[in-house]
Specification:
Length: 136
């Protein structure tokens, strides 16, 4: 029985599903925003939020090793601890947002953008400040 089981299976084996989620979270860390289907984005959000919680433990070796075991690239681990975890320092969860894009033309799957909440807030002021010095 599947009591208390919330994870979707996506029609894949357990190993394939784990590799898929590792890949999505790694790419989310490296690219800061990914486009995927809505159910995959919802599951990847859970994994991403857990890994941020691990990374906020003040850069301990055990936390770094745990993150490295759940990510595919060492570059992603470095970026997680150097940039993303410090940016999420004042938050008590809710590190990601999902924006719905609508249905995909080919198969009708609902697409979504998964991104960090600090991405949109950090880029908007930069865009507003850039034209101001050019106008002087």
């Amino acid at each position: 029985m599947r009591h208390q089981r919330v994870q979707k299976k996506f029609g894949r084996s357990m190993e394939h599903r784990k590799a898929l989620m590792k890949s999505l979270v790694t790419n989310l860390i490296l690219e800061e925003s990914i486009t995927t289907t809505l159910p995959k984005a919802k599951q990847a959000r859970k994994d991403a939020e857990r890994i941020i919680t691990v990374a906020r433990k003040k850069d301990q070796l055990a936390a770094r090793r745990l993150a490295a075991s759940r990510l595919l690239q060492p570059k992603a681990v470095q970026k997680l601890f150097a940039e993303i975890a410090p940016a999420m320092e004042g938050r008590n969860g809710g590190y990601t947002r999902i924006l719905k894009l609508g249905a995909r033309k080919g198969d009708g799957a609902e697409l979504a953008i998964l991104q960090w909440v600090t991405v949109g807030a950090a880029k908007e002021p930069e865009a507003a400040e850039a034209p101001a010095p050019a106008a002087e």
